[in-house]
Amino acid sequence: MPVTSLDSSAAWASATRMVAANRDMLAAIAGVFFLLPGLAGAVFLPAPGVKSGMNEAQIMDAMQSYYAGSMPMLVLLSLIPMAGMLTMLVVMLDSARPTVGQAIRRSFAALPSYFAAQLLVALAMLPVALVVLAALAALLPDTVAMAAAFGVLLYPIMRTMLIAPVLAGGSARGPIAAIRESIRLTRRNTGRMLAFIGLAGFLFLVVYGLVMMVVGVVLVLATGGEAQRLLAEGISGVLLAVGYTYFVAILAAIHGQLAGPAPESTAALFD
User: Fold this and answer.
1) Burial 137-148, CB ≥16 within 10 A → b, else e
2) Model confidence over 109-149: pLDDT tens digits?
3) Which pLDDT tens digit goes with each residue over 45-90?
4) CA-derived radius of gyration, the chain
5) pTM exceeds 0.90 for this model
6) pLDDT tens digits, residue range 193-228?
7) The Cα angle at residue 206 between residues 202 and 207, in degrees rounded to 5
C-alpha cells in the first residue's frame, strides 16, 4: 500500500478552513469543554503549597498532598477537554454536518476508548522513559538528560497522535484498533508531523506570551488581588481555548490527508 506524505501547507489551509466553516459550533464547544473547566480549576483547585526556600523533600510532600486531595477533580477536569476534543473532531470530520448535540453524544460514546488508548500508550511509554532517563542521567547532567529523554519519546507520541481523529472519524472503535490505525497512518510522516505541530505550537507560545505580558501589565495597573488573578486566568483560558481549537483542527487536517476521503457519514457507527 502506498504511503501518503503529509503536506503541511495543505494541512494548515484545511485546518483554517474547518475552523472558519464551523466557527460558531466550535466556539460553543470550546467555551463549554475548554474554557469553563479551566476557570473551574482556577477557582476551586488550590495551588500546590510550594514556597520559596523549601528543600526537595518538602516540595515532594507538598505536591503529594496536592494531588492526593485534588485527584478526583483533576481527573474530571481532564476528561471534559477530552470529550471536547472528540466533539470538535466529529464536527470537523463528518461531512453530514451533525448538530452539537449529535456530536456530543458520539464523542461520549468514543470517550472510553480514547481514555483507554491514552492510558495504554502512557503505560507502554513509562518504562521506556525511565530506562532512557536512567541511562542518560549516568552520562549527562539531569536537565540535559530529561530533555534528551523527552526528545526520544517524541517519536511514539507522534505515531499515536491520531488516535482521537481515528475514533471520532469512526474508522476504529476499540482502543487497540485506534492505536494500530494511528501507527499505520503516521508511517514515514513522523518528522513532517513533528515539524508542523512543533512550529504551530511555537508560534502559539510566542503570541500567547506576548499577549499575556501586555495583559499582565494592564491588570497590575488596573486591579489587584484575587480579581487580578481571575481576570488573568480568564484571558489565558480564552487564548488557550482558541489555540486548542486550532490544534484539534490540525489533527483533523492531518488525519484527513493521511486517511484519504472519509465516508459520507459515520453517524451510524455510534447510533
Assistant:
1) eeeeeeeebeeb
2) 999 999 999 999 999 988 888 888 888 888 888 788 888 88
3) 766 666 666 777 777 777 777 777 777 788 888 899 999 999 999 9
4) 20
5) no
6) 999 999 999 999 999 999 999 999 998 888 877 788
7) 120
Residue 190 and residue 183: Cα distance in Å, rounded? 10
d(CA 221, CA 212): 14
Q: Where are the domains of the chain?
A: 8-109+189-269
Residues comprising the chain, all counted: 271
CA angle 215/196/162 to nearest 5° reads 105
Evaluated on CA atoms 131, 133, 134, 139, the torsion sign reads: positive
